[in-house]
């Protein structure tokens, strides 16, 4: 007889809790989300406004580069604890 209590997806509750984040996203997590979002937005704007694909990609790359420069040089990652104390 098995005493294992897996959920319907095959994961035990304790293991599933370890996979879920317990903290809010950091500034650098948001930068990583902004980069592809900028490309999607600029491509959609290019379709709506009738701009060329090259102009949309160049604009998205410029904005993405600014986000990366900000994340690496202006507000670089630091070692140690997060601001929320964990």
Question: How would you describe the overall organization of this protein?
Answer:
The chain has 86 residues and is an all-alpha fold. It has a domain at 24-74. Helix content is 60%, strand content 0%. It has 3 helices and no strands. α2 runs antiparallel to α3. The mean pLDDT is 81.
- Count of separate DSSP helical elements: 3
Sheet having the most strands:
none
Low-confidence parts lasting 5 or more residues at pLDDT below 50? none
Elements, N to C (H/E): HHH
- Summarize the amount of helix as a percent range: 55-70%
Rg, alpha carbons: 20 Å
Give the helix/strand class: mainly alpha
Shape call = flat
Report strand %: under 5%
- What's the overall average pLDDT, rounded? 81
Q: Give me the count of strands.
A: 0
Measured between the Cα atoms of the first and last residue, the distance is 40 Å
Give a brief description.
It is flat, with a radius of gyration of 20 Å. It has 3 helices and no strands. It has helices spanning 13-19, 27-49, 53-74.
Furnish the topology, listing elements before pairings.
Elements: H1 13-19, H2 27-49, H3 53-74
Helix pairs in contact: 2-3
What keywords describe this structure?
DUF8015, 86 residues, membrane, transmembrane helix, 60% helix, single chain, mainly alpha, transmembrane, flat
């Amino acid at each position: 007889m098995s005493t294992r209590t897996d959920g319907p997806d095959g994961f035990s509750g304790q293991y599933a809790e370890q996979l879920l984040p317990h903290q809010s996203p950091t500034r650098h997590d948001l930068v990583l989300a902004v980069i592809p979002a900028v490309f999607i937005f600029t491509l959609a704007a290019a379709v709506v406004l009738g701009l060329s694909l090259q102009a949309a990609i160049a604009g998205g790359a410029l904005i993405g580069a600014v986000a990366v420069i900000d994340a690496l040089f202006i507000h670089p990652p630091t070692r140690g604890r997060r601001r929320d104390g964990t």
